[in-house]
User: Which sequence fits this backbone?
């Protein structure tokens, strides 16, 4: 059964079948032909429906909606302007602003693609006008977009929490320090290139310019503070926080900045519904796929095989890192989390690895996968936004694997980087 399940999915994806339909078809095919007992259509529908019956999943369309409203309302322009005021005076200033802007926008979107497609257009245009070469501009824009799913809120971490049962609040807080480390390491890379290629820097901002930039960006900047503060204090759940983010973005766009018309709002809601439906199909069919996977005994086999190799948590994480980096080259992060997490979680719990630590490590691995060929989705987004060839984008982005890989190694070997803040604010998990 497992061979049918795996090879069937690979074959369907190879010929261009959408992931959601591929997962369902492969699972159904293997369950009919590879099982000694019949599996009825009612079970298929029940398993798919059960996979969708989780209040936590409501956060995904709400975060998508919030990000789209921010982009459409022109709020990303204000955020990038503020980021440029903060760090634009450094060598390669707009490169640094690109990274800081992604960190700020991450507090509202939770998705790398939203960052690359929305904020990326603004960043590329500004860097081109300032004289930066296209390859560097595209590379730093693509690399910095990976901060979005690490810094809270994060859609991939919501998905991980749904599958693993880990605390969303702890996962959100666990991503804060790694996100800042990603910023720091990428800014070091920008500094190196700026010195080597003599990239320009922005004039040091006057007090008037700094104050104006801060005032324009002040209300959007409150978003991550409100969300994290509300979750940490227990005022609302992570799902309710997503609703707060969406309503707040709507109020900013329609009532405060008056950039959103009713037509714009309607279009954003339709786009959000379309993207959420795609994710919903993937979640539903992956639930059935995962059930068949567990029914085949594959999850138990993998767990026993890994534990037979080693029971050292660090060695196990190293093996998983290699595996996830390969998987990230071929599968979307949501699909990978939905399929792989149920396989690996029993091993993680058995050897005593903190689920929060593992969740952040897993998400960062898969975010690096967004930048790796042949199916790195951020690379395709940047190709569409910039008009540069795919091969050229891959080559330009490759050096930024160094800072991202450095942070991955750090959080793998030093779990406290991830767990320190959740333990400080929410207590030690048991």
Assistant:
């Amino acid at each position: 059964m497992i061979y049918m399940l795996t090879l069937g999915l690979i074959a369907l994806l190879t010929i261009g079948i959408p992931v959601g339909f591929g997962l369902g078809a492969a699972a159904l095919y293997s369950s009919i032909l590879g099982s000694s007992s019949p599996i009825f259509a009612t079970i298929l529908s029940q398993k798919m429906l059960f996979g969708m019956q989780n209040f936590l999943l409501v956060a995904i369309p709400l975060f998508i909606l919030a990000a789209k409203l921010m982009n459409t309302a022109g709020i990303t322009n204000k955020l990038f302007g503020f980021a440029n005021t903060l760090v634009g005076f450094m060598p390669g200033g707009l490169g640094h602003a690109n990274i800081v802007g992604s960190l700020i926008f991450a507090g509202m979107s939770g998705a790398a693609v939203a960052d690359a497609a929305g904020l990326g257009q603004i960043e590329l245009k500004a860097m081109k006008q300032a004289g930066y070469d296209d390859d560097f501009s595209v590379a730093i824009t693509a690399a910095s977009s990976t901060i979005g799913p690490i810094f809270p809120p994060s859609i991939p971490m919501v998905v991980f929490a749904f599958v693993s049962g880990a605390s969303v609040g702890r996962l959100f807080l666990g991503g804060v320090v790694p996100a800042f480390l990603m910023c720091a390491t990428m800014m070091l890379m920008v500094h190196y290139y700026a010195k080597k290629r003599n990239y320009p820097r922005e004039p040091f901002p006057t007090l008037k310019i700094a104050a104006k930039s801060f005032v324009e960006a002040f209300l959007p900047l409150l978003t991550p503070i409100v969300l994290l503060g509300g979750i940490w204090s227990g005022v609302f759940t992570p799902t309710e926080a997503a609703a707060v983010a969406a309503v707040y973005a709507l109020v900013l766009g329609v009532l405060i900045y008056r950039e959103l018309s009713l037509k714009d709002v309607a279009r954003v809601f339709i786009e959000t519904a379309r993207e959420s439906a795609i994710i919903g199909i993937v979640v539903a069919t992956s639930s059935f796929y995962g059930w068949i996977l567990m029914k085949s005994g594959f999850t138990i086999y993998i767990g026993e095989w890994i534990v037979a190799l080693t029971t050292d948590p660090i060695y196990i994480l190293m093996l998983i890192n290699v595996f996830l980096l390969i998987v990230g080259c071929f599968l979307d992060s949501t699909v990978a989390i939905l399929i792989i997490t149920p396989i690996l979680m029993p091993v993680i719990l058995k050897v005593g690895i903190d689920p929060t630590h593992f969740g952040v490590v897993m998400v960062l691995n898969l975010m690096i996968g967004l930048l790796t060929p042949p199916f790195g989705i951020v690379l395709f987004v940047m190709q569409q936004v910039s008009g540069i060839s795919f091969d050229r984008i891959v080559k330009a982005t490759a050096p930024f694997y160094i800072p991202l890989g450095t942070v991955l190694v750090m959080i793998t070997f030093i779990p406290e980087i991830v767990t320190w803040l959740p333990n400080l604010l929410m207590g030690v998990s048991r």
